């Protein structure tokens, strides 16, 4: 394990801390989408600041989750929604009763509502360029959580409290489509486990999507955090590029030949046009279209974690005011069609090409002043640009 890992706090963790002592190069070459990995060596309380058992009732009380945000599951499957109040929110008392009878509590969507996990998810998204979701599983002592199943996202299980025994089996389908769901598997379809391990507090198990797995809690309540990487695939990437092409090129928006399924002539016409469209797609597709759409999904639609930004919206900013970027997933600068812009967490900016140099400088700087921005902008234009970037959420006072 790296010395940095022992010194770090989980609230400052980066992706490398979840896989240490394996390096990122080795992980993505030998494990990613290929085989499970058990990562050990952290302090037992390493993940407690992110979310602990003491936070469960607090989250239920304050966020008032509904079904889908809070679920109960036993070895037989998901529990019916008989733990909800009349308004559809979870009842703490009913959830507790079901838990004491053996149900695992699943709290989902925590990358949106629980600040330590919001920050960690954004940090991992920035490193991996893939969307991240967070959930918490609390299983009572000596009970099984979810029955054997496989997930359609890459899973990292961060053991926080208690222990859990895991069995991982070969996938029944290689690289299943990324749907953000799980698929139960009948036990008779399982082969011998390829990985059996007991996770103790501070340890991590990586399970690639498609790999069947199941877990049983030890003699104490088991709580783990799942870091779910909802990877965007080459299929997604080409779909984005095709959608952008269709916006520019009306031919892609034409209907298919009427009645082609019932006509040999229609099928011949379909075949001819199909190959024409393939040639057109190959010749005119722009990589930037797909990259821009990916950045929009990953960052532009997701504001940074709350940090009191309203307090600086009317700050007096002059040429030598020190500023810094807020906690962002992405700062992507682009130049096209005589314009320049930047996509970043929660927003974007587009302007004349002459702001490109300033935006590139900002994207790669931790702190800055308007006066420090390079490029052809006048001092007043630099101040105006910076003020705008404060107001739309990229910059804040240092």
Main pleated sheet = 8 strands, antiparallel
Shape: globular
Number of strands: 19
Q: What is the helix content?
A: 25-40%
- For this structure, the CATH topology of the largest domain is Jelly Rolls
Provide a count of the helices.
12
Radius of gyration: 25 Å
Strand order of the largest sheet: 1-11-7-13-5-4-2-3
Question: What's the mean pLDDT score?
Answer: 93
Strand content: 15-25%
**Which segments are poorly predicted (pLDDT under 50) over 5 or more consecutive residues?**
1-7
The CATH class name of the largest domain reads Mainly Beta
Architecture per CATH nomenclature, i.e. the level-2 architecture of the largest domain: Sandwich
What is the terminal-to-terminal distance?
34 Å
CATH superfamily of the largest domain: Cupin
Q: What is the structural class?
A: alpha+beta
Domain module count: 3
Summarize the structure.
With 398 residues, this protein is of the alpha+beta class. Helices cover 31% and strands 22% of the residues.
Written overview of the protein:
With 398 residues, the protein is α+β, with helices and mostly antiparallel strands. The chain has three domains: 3-229, Cupin (Jelly Rolls, Sandwich); 234-285, no CATH class; 294-397, Outer Surface Protein A, domain 3. 31% of the residues lie in helices and 22% in strands. Mean pLDDT is 93; it is low at 1-7.
